[in-house]
Amino acid sequence: MPWYSYIAGRQDSGNPNNYTYVGSTPPSCPSNKLYLCAIQAQDNLGAPDLTNINLFIEIANAINNRVESTNVKLRPTP
């Protein structure tokens, strides 16, 4: 599954337009894991398919608990 980098400063992690495709390797996300950095999701015409409720739960849990998961990477700045 491909990885998508979350565009810094955006406010809506549920909007596929707020991500940039980066390929099959996750991007480098610096320490101090506080904010969304990247997600791994199914591709939908070059954007992440954000229709999977389990992925939304995984994103929310990672952000709320400040802990990365299999499909969610975090970074120190919004």
Reconstruct the topology from this structure:
Elements: E1 3-6, E2 19-23, E3 35-40, E4 43-44, E5 47-48, H1 53-65, E6 72-75
Antiparallel strand pairs: 1-2, 1-3, 3-6, 4-5
Structural class call reads alpha+beta
Query: Using DSSP, what is the number of strands?
Result: 6
In DSSP terms (H or I, runs of 4 or more residues), the helix count works out at 1
* Helix-strand string: EEEEEHE
Low-confidence sequence ranges:
none
Largest β-sheet summary: 4 strands, antiparallel
How is the largest sheet built, in terms of strand order?
2-1-3-6
Provide the gyration radius in Å.
11 Å
**Helicity, as a percent range:** 10-25%
Q: Approximately how much beta-strand content do the residues carry?
A: 25-35%
- CA-based shape: globular
Q: Look at the structure and give the mean pLDDT.
A: 96
What this model shows, in words?
By secondary structure, the protein is an alpha+beta fold. Helices cover 17% and strands 29% of the residues. It has one helix and six strands; from the N terminus they run βββββαβ. The strands form two sheets. A four-stranded antiparallel beta sheet has the order 2-1-3-6, with helices on one face. Strands 4-5 form a two-stranded antiparallel sheet. Strand 4 and strand 5 form a beta hairpin. The N and C termini lie far apart (24 Å). The model has no long low-confidence stretch (mean pLDDT 96).
